[in-house]
Design brief:
Shape: globular
Helix content: 40-55%
Radius of gyration: 22 Å
Strand order of the largest sheet: 3-4-2-1-5-6-8-7
Number of helices: 15
Structural class: alpha/beta
Distance between the termini: 22 Å
Number of strands: 14
Order of helices and strands: EHEHEEEHEHEEHHHEHEHEEHEHEHHHH
Largest sheet: 8 strands, mixed
Amino acid sequence: MPFTPALTLALFCKVVDNYGDIGICWRLARQLWREHGVHVSLWVDDLHSFRRICPEVDVTAAAQTVQGVLVRHWRDQEGTFAPEEVADIVIEFFAVDIPPGYVAAMAQRTPRPVWFNLEGLTAEEWVEGCHRLPSMHPRLKLTKHFFFPGFTVKTGGVLHEAGLDEERLAFQADRTAMAAFLGGLGLSAAEMEALKVSLFCYPHAPVAELLRAWSEGSRPVTCLVPEGVAAEAVQAFMGSGARAGDSATAGALTVRVLPFVAQPDYDRLLWACDLNFVRGEDSFVRAQWAGRPFVWHIYPQDENLHHKKLRAFLGRYADGLPALERFSLGWNGAIDIDAMPVAWQDLQGELPRIAIRAEEWRREVLAHGDLTTKLLQFARELRLAAQNPV
């Protein structure tokens, strides 16, 4: 039974990973409204980063409605709130601290809200045992539940909008539409015919070595990189500043600098490219739905915990794809890449098999259900349990 349209949800997001955190929360907020009729208040501390992926955002507004979502500028931890201001469902993304005044109002509200800590996506097995676990507040009569996205039926699934696959397949089958999209980004006909690679990574990736391998290779490559990403390596290759719209060619490689685009256009970029380098979580998920080969640059963590997460994912995704596994580990600094040209040639030779695996993986993950639907199903269970205590 669906929720009534009057259901409200507050989603609190602090931008840590520049665009990944807000990217995830923005997609979740829009899907909750568009597909489930949930009235969402999205609390965001960094509206400037938000605006780069959603140009409609007014960075000066304390509150604004964007695409059906109420966006609130989360300035600080101060403020008092009345119980009636608290939403039916409260989500803290990645263990952010909700303002104490809001939490106090949650405890005073009748009925009390369903409270989730939405964790980061991981393929590690331990999340199956932690998914949906409760945590009692130390002082207030409130219970928070952990909700873990994941790739198995025992987790919360992955963000995926209804109709996304149909839209992607239609775009990829329409060469005219794809050419018009790429032409709008400045690509020439020759650049479109080359191996098209999107590059989105953290600054410590071995980008300079990869650009050199591409330029000295025999196959033409068009590298599309957002402005400011891998800035030092890109500027060194181009021999000058690297602003949106700039391009340079050396040997077999053309590098073209793109502006940051709204999320629907970033999806199309992933759909249009032959290989996608992605980072963090949001673009990592969207690369999986693109049905194209991709290399993931995972967000770095202390004590190299991110390498463990990376290996867990590769263990599920890259079984039987040794070149992809080795390149991914090297790209993330988990092992050394002794010779980038060799590593690239190995990866390039494996691209057709990776493309097949990409489609298999997409079907496997989607069979477990999408995150938004599973989250609302769990919220419904918790609300019913609260109304009918044992």
